[in-house]
Amino acid sequence: MPGKETQLWTDTKLLELVKEDNLTAFEMIYNKYWSRLYLSAYNILRDQQAAEDIVQEIMTDLWARRTTTQIESLNSYLYASIRYKVFKAIKSGKIRDGLYEEIERMSVANQTEDLLAEKDINKLLELALSQLPPKCREIFLLSRKEHLSTKEIAERLGISPKTVESQITIAIRRLRPVLGEVIFLAMFVFSSHFLKN
């Protein structure tokens, strides 16, 4: 069981220890990120088993390649892995059949059209976000843009975790009808692209 000292370890420290075959450090990474990664995958796929499998595969790979993979930011690495695996699952056709083709069609026109489409999507996203209550919008962006956990958001804003969960649920319910299913899902797949500064 991790003690007080181990709870203060940074991701960088945990990665160093994992490279030295430290199972406690790996367990701490697993416990810290599992639910967040699962929710990221599930919010797109709406398939519990597929989301669990993807997160398990990412964690297994992290351990199996612990001595060879160079990771500068664990948070960025894990979320990039989730996006890649989710996109791969959609592309395979096994999950949400036809969704990949819809997302691809949305962005495969010529370069000029792509730029216009991106501007339109960003405008639509900005409009949808602007219609959320300020606190709801702030919580949603902390969750999706900065990938903060419910607990981290609650601590940062001085509110309860249940309030955070409730506000994220409200945001998702309001954004989906405004953006439409395909753009809404694409936003989650490419969140770092659409939710940029």
UniProtKB/TrEMBL annotation:
Domain of life where this protein originates: Bacteria
One Gene Ontology term of the molecular function aspect: sigma factor activity
GO biological process annotation, one example: DNA-templated transcription initiation
Occurrences of domain RNA polymerase sigma factor 70 region 4 type (ranges): 124-175
RNA polymerase sigma-70 region domain residues: 30-92
Entries under Pfam families matching the protein: Sigma70_r2, Sigma70_r4_2
The keyword Chaperone appears for this protein: no
InterPro entries: RNA_pol_sigma-70-like, RNA_pol_sigma-70_dom, RNA_pol_sigma70_bacteroid, RNA_pol_sigma70_r2, RNA_pol_sigma70_r4_t2, RNA_pol_sigma_r2, RNA_pol_sigma_r3/r4-like, WH-like_DNA-bd_sf
Keywords: Sigma factor, Transcription, Transcription regulation
The family this protein is said to belong to: Belongs to the sigma-70 factor family. ECF subfamily.
Protein name in UniProt: RNA polymerase sigma-70 factor
Species of the source: Arcticibacter tournemirensis
